Amino acid sequence: MRHGVGSMFFWLAAAASPDAPTQAGQAAPTGSEIRYAARPALPRAAKACSPRVPVCVHFAPRDAPAAPAALAAFERTWPVLTGALALPRPELDPMTLAHDVFLVDGENETLLEARDVRSNVDRGRGFTLLDRRMRAGCNLDAAAATAVARASLLGVAPATEEPTARAQARYFAQLAVPCAVAYDADAFATFQSQPERPFADAGADARFADGAAAFWSRVDWAYGRTPGAIPRATWALHPTTTPVGARRWMNEPDTFDVLRLSFKNALSTGSTVNDLWLDFGVARAFLGAADDGLHQPELRTLGEAGRVPVAWDIPWPNEPRRLAPRVPVAPTGAAYLVVRRAGAKPGARLRAEIEWEEHALFRWAFVKLDERGRELGRVVIPTQERATEAQMTLVDLDAVDRVMLVGVNVGDPAYAFDPDDGPLEPHGWLVTIAEER
């Protein structure tokens, strides 16, 4: 009996010994700390359970008026996520046979309560804390959808690195509740305002991590066959096995191992996941008000919140210019430089010579833009695997209004990118830009 009372022991055993050491002979866990949470104690608690979906809302007497709206939000979003978007149903509490939601003061969170020690791969069960002050509407529905997505992820891939888990859950909420994009404008603005940071940053606050849903939105829009297909596939393709008494998750393989293998030769012959990082670096320059209809038109509603800052915006370089970063760039982070073509002679060519620090590999691309900011085409600058410099001359610029040079730090060539390895070291670059006569 999978969710009956007879299975209670198998769940509680996982939560009863979170601090036991890893057994001798087992590989050292590589992921984040396993944090079990205890359910909140509500005074004179009551509960309301849905007849339509396996969800129960627990509340104190003062919050009785808010409980129906919270339950209705889960009734609307649960079928969309576990039906149309095909997410696995979250693991249910063996006593209540439901996913339990508690109305409390504070942030919305879905927390790990226990692990299923019978399974040969990691499986977890959680409960949700929901801010009792939320009222019916889009924001409440988005919070419910995020909770269901996060609970689903705990059930099939609980070792997933925290920044990825949070960003993916928020992306699924945006798919299930499209108006959530507007409510996340502040999160997107926070994320876009710091393009030099890793998009999966283990040290990021909640707002930045929610804004990183932009990565999964872009990758899914450009390369997924159905909505949610790529993040959902990462869950299925990185099952992990963590010793029951371990303090940290055994997060190998992880999300980025899946992307690394899945995108090998996927974008072009000989392409790697580094080309995906560069593609996203270019695409995020077209979010919100900068949208040109070719990259992520669904996020056009972000407006100015979607704009990415440009490190340098310079006129046509009749004399060579040397440009350094205002902020160094961490792995998967990006830097942007814009060169205006006004004042250039017909047939003028643009030369870029780029250097960067050791223990990093940068990928660069020229992006040609018209007067409306629409991409006319891009040219990726060839870069050797362990190089610290690259150069290229860009031609055929007569129809171009401006050129954007995008650089992405794809990480140390000696180590595959993994957010669990943080803190991740940023690196500097130096660009010499000039008209080639």
Q: How many helices?
A: 11
Question: For the CA atoms, what is the radius of gyration?
Answer: 24 Å
Terminal CA distance reads 77 Å
State the helical fraction.
Answer: 25-40%
- Rounded average pLDDT: 92
Number of extended strands: 14
Order of helices and strands: HEEHEEEHHHHHHHHHEEEEEEEEE
The major beta sheet can be summarized as: 5 strands, mixed
Sum up the overall morphology in one term.
elongated
In order across it, which strands form the biggest sheet? 1-2-3-5-4
Structural class by helix and strand composition: alpha+beta
Strand content: 15-25%
Low-confidence residue ranges? 1-9, 12-25
Task: Describe the SSE topology.
Elements: H1 8-16, E1 46-49, E2 55-59, H2 67-84, E3 99-104, E4 109-115, E5 124-131, H3 138-156, H4 162-176, H5 180-183, H6 185-192, H7 206-211, H8 213-223, H9 229-237, H10 255-262, H11 273-283, E6 312-314, E7 321-323, E8 334-340, E9 349-356, E10 362-369, E11 375-381, E12 389-394, E13 402-409, E14 429-436
Parallel strand pairs: 2-3, 3-5, 6-8
Antiparallel strand pairs: 1-2, 4-5, 7-14, 8-13, 9-12, 9-14, 10-11, 10-13
Helix pairs in contact: 2-3, 3-4, 4-8
